Amino acid sequence: MPETYVGTSGAAGRAGIWATIVTIAGVDVTESIFGNIVIDAEEDSARVADLTIAPASTSFTVSAWVGKPVTVDIAAMHTGSPTSVERLFTGIIDTPVLDLAGRRIGLRCTDDLQGVVEAMDAAAIDAAIPDGYYSPAIFDPAARGWSRAQDRLSTVPASLDLTPARALRLTAWEPKFAADIAFTAGGLAWGIPLLVASGGLNAYL
User: Fold this and answer.
1) For residue 145, is pLDDT > 70?
2) What are phi and psi of 113, to 5 degrees?
3) Which of 157, 158, 149, 154 is nearest to 127 (CA)?
4) b/e for 73-111, b at 16 or more Cβ within 10 A?
5) pLDDT of 201 over the 70 cut
6) Which residues contact 151 (CB under 8 A, 6 or more apart)?
7) In this structure, how many other beta carbons lie within 10 angstroms of the beta carbon of residue 190?
8) How does pLDDT run across 12-27, given as a tens digit for each residue?
């Protein structure tokens, strides 16, 4: 995503207008999404998305939702139509939870990082972690998939995960010389709490 996303930057003194777009099994279900969409991404872990849908049909099988592909995008709406569409999440439904009272289904989705790596052959894993070291005296020679990747990751200062578009990537732990995104006072609504070491107090930018 660009440093300044057009959907939130606004123009000529107007507030930015943006919206999310959700698809399940290739079908746009944005109008059926209820409440917030929460996406959690951590290094060396599968990206997780939680959302709630009010199904259009009153007749369905909850278990049939498991494994269906899911995408979540953000789009600028200042023109009245989606533009500058950026992917936030690509994955599958892992756990559907039925809310009988609300007639909704809570969906926990995952990018299935472990499953993706588990399906890779040894050569592909070694290529994805090119600087990883291997020793038969330390690691299991029969290790495959996720275990093989974890063995090699333990020898390099980097993390393996999937991009929002579900492409495998290796990210170095070392900070970049220049920040990807810089926040200023003018771009903050409430400020960022900082711990002041000398007094143990919270300060705000």
Assistant:
1) yes
2) -55, -50
3) 149
4) bbbbebeeebebebebbbbbbbebeeeeeeebbbbebbb
5) no
6) 132, 134, 139, 140, 143
7) 7
8) 545 567 889 999 999 9
